[in-house]
Amino acid sequence: MATDRTRGWWEKFAGVLPPIFADLAEMEHHATYLQDIATAHVPGLLQTEEYARAVYTYWRPELRPSEVELRVEHRMSRKVVLGREETPYTAVLHEPVLRTRVADRSVARTQLDSLLALSENHGVTLRVIPFDVDGFAGASAELIYAGGRVPALDTAQRDTPYGPAFMDAPAQLKAMRALFHRVAGVSLDPAPSRDYIHRLAKEL
Fold first, then answer.
1. Considering Cα of 67, then 69, then 73, then 78, what sign does the dihedral take?
2. Residue 67 in this model has a pLDDT that exceeds 70
3. CB 166, CB 155: distance < 8 Å
4. CA distance 160 to 142
5. Structural domain boundaries of the chain?
6. 111/41 Cα distance (integer angstroms)
7. What gap in Å lies between CA 24 and CA 116, rounded to an integer?
8. Sheet strand arrangement including 143-147
9. In Å, how far are 44, 139, 172, 175 from 143, measured between CA atoms?
């Protein structure tokens, strides 16, 4: 990360989207592994186009349609990292993430079907935390953790009331690693998680 000056796909959005969009894409590009905790929305890397459009349309102050479409295009472009075997991706999803309808039943069902399809990909692991699990008090535990080529180059990103914040101090990273392992520790294994998502999809 310190020496690679790759001009990635995100360069096309320079000047038309806030710099944070390029920062996030570049972080994911350089990662040797990615870990997500989601308690509100499906993680951006896993969102369908319709789901992402619904999320961005809900923003306030309201975005113009052209601004929404640029953000959706950027979010869909980020998925390229999911096809890289050298970058394993793990997402821990609290049940509200799977049940909340950001649009309608059709969008919700398509999103769950997409999660099931992605979970079959090599290098993608999804784990679900059901409502009725004991020992989970992490409703505010949203997190993206990107592993670097060496631990000193790890980066974590969390949303704050003032926008996304990146963390790279050793103490912060240690705390975020511990947080991820604690949250993942109460989640279902991958196979039961897929079964759980499949059951929720059938309910729609």
1. positive
2. yes
3. yes
4. 10
5. 20-203
6. 11
7. 25
8. 124-129, 89-94, 33-38, 143-147, 155-160, 163-167
9. 12, 11, 12, 11
**147 token code pair:** 């592993």
- Please tell me the predicted confidence (pLDDT) of residue 95: 98
Tokens standing for 171? 């103490």
Give the number of residues written for the chain: 204
Q: pLDDT tens-digit profile of 179-191?
A: 999 999 999 999 9
Predicted local distance difference test score (pLDDT) of residue 6: 62
For the chain, what is the HEC assignment?
CCCCCCCCHHHHHECCECHHHHHHHHHHHHCCEEEEEECCCCCHHHCCHHHHHHHHHCCCCCCCHHHHHHHHHHHHHHHHHHHCCCCCEEEEEEHHHHHCCCCCHHHHHHHHHHHHHHHCCCCEEEEEECCCCCCCCCCCCCEEEEECCCHHHCEEEEEECCEEEEECCHHHHHHHHHHHHHHHCCCCCHHHHHHHHHHHHHHC
What is the residue type of 168?
D
Residues 87, 97: Cα–Cα separation, whole Å: 24
CATH class of 20-203: alpha beta
